[in-house]
Amino acid sequence: MKRLSPLWMTFWIAVGLSVLATLSILLLNPILRQVELLPDQGAAWYYWKLPEPSFWTRATAWGFYLAHQVFFWGLIRWAVKNRDTLRNRGIMHPVNWIGLAGTGFFVALHYLQTAFWYDGLAQDTSVFSSQISVIFLLVIVLIMEAPRRGIVFGVGGKWLAPARQWLIRYHGYYFAWAVVYTYWFHPMETTPGHLLGFLYTFLLLLQGAFVFTRVHTNKWWTAVLEVSVLIHGVTVALVAGQEFWPMFFFGFAALFVVTQMHGLGLPRWVHWVVYTAFVGGIWAVYSDRGWGNVNEVFRIPIIDYGLVVVLGGALVLVLWLIRRRRQRAKSP
After folding, report:
1. Taking a C-beta distance cutoff of 8 angstroms, is the pair 18, 108 a contact?
2. pTM of the complete model
3. Which alpha helices (H) appear in 117-160, and where do they start and end?
């Protein structure tokens, strides 16, 4: 049996601690049940926020969020500036240990902030802002990975190569904002949706902490992070009693079937097993649900692939114009 390297051993310990941190949120339940919340007011309403926020509930939520954001951006900035000293991707560097320690600190801080003040950024921002930030994160990943694994069944992504090179250098800043903002958007509630959401966020924070290591670019690990949104989305929909859970399940599953699995180097027969299971699942669900609702399967893919084309195309065009301008400036 092959022995785990210190890097991967550290990674698996960090994942285990993330699971334990998620389960520890359940210990907050007696405190959380004392919080009185307003009645649900529809899809645009975020239920888990205080009816009467105070100065300290807002100051702690926004203050701790800003501190976390500055820490994460500072970590990325330092790593990028000193990337020449981080060439060995098979070991832990000081920046990785600092990232893990900082992640642990802000997990504990959010835990205490929920226990004493409860509120998150949702008190002052749109309920859709957190969702949109994560959607754009996933779309950027599709753009970055397109030259390697294609967009549709392993083909069609070469034209995004210039965008990939630019995003590899700068994507961390947006990812850090999207993850940290989403993290402080919610109080540490104990619903299944919140628990899975926080576990997913913990794993995304770990991804940032392992920057410039083989963990950060491991195709199986990054695929897990991409696909995990399916589990979270379906769980939230089912717990909320929403009948359109198949939109999340088949929509995100379609991204895996059409794009994400083609970067894993799977045998051809595995592809056909996945295709068969996907089509069979659609047949089983919509034979009962009604074929008039089958458009649900295409909603998320249409949005995500549309954004890939629009954002990716705009970035490629801007980079081409900048390069063209520089070439003209150099010419006599």
Report:
1. no
2. 0.93
3. 127-149
